[in-house]
């Protein structure tokens, strides 16, 4: 750790977490560039950078700027939002199992979006512009509702991490079953669209998906970073945190609300991409060697996981493209089992 001063701003810089962010950003930029370059019409990396600098023929500019770059940026932003949301949840609950996936936030967001897809499809209850704009808005509302429900049910004169996880698992089960019930209400076309959406997919993502999640990150990440000191204090027991001058309930409520909004916005853009919010903070924690999941490191690792998984989903199976959520689920399921086994061993000790 080394102190620094930039004008009136001073602080302490820990080199290992800083290196994780810098190296991670380099890998993330390389993965995004490869994602833009590869596809049915491969484009050399040099020509991709030429297009990004304003050059290149019209055909390559269309492929890069209108088709592939929005998809890659959506993956980066969605992964970053899920990664930092997971870091906040796990820091507050002091539990590596606490993530928007497990606590029902992403399933709540998915249920809200599926309501609009189903009732705006064959049933025609929701139509026109509302049927298109309503999907991300309903997803955001569903995520917020699920987050508030978990928070309210887990509240017993405060929030305790283990109770938060148990209540979240229950809410997640209710939201997922309600989503699958909606599959039986609509017709086959609606059901197929819903299945792709709830799996988590970046297919067909354009600038209309990049802009909302990018703006949300620009507003919410600085707010979360301002609260990083609170997360550092919340890693201790309640008495110690109070001794440090932290108002526990207010700090937890604000940080959880920010994390819920981040997870809901990410889900609104790409659907519930599984296990990114669960695994990214723990990977970043081990790389950075910190006591709690590093916020920026978790965001970078989350973006890298989604972009690389989407690249695998597009290119590893010939002409058949999988939703990115299938790849992250295949990678994340063994990791979840590892966490459960490790938690059980720690409980025995």
Automatic annotation (TrEMBL):
GO terms for molecular function: transmembrane transporter activity. It is a multi-pass membrane protein. GO terms for biological process: siderophore-iron import into cell. It is found in: Cell membrane. Keywords: Cell membrane, Membrane, Transmembrane, Transmembrane helix, Transport. CDD domains: TM_ABC_iron-siderophores_like. GO terms for cellular component: plasma membrane. The chain crosses the membrane at residues 72-93, 105-127, 133-154, 161-183, 210-232, 253-275, 295-313, 320-341. Gene3D superfamilies: ABC transporter involved in vitamin B12 uptake, BtuC (1.10.3470.10). Its main location: membrane. Belongs to the binding-protein-dependent transport system permease family. FecCD subfamily. This is Iron complex transport system permease protein. It comes from Saccharothrix ecbatanensis. The lineage of its organism: Bacteria, Bacillati, Actinomycetota, Actinomycetes, Pseudonocardiales.
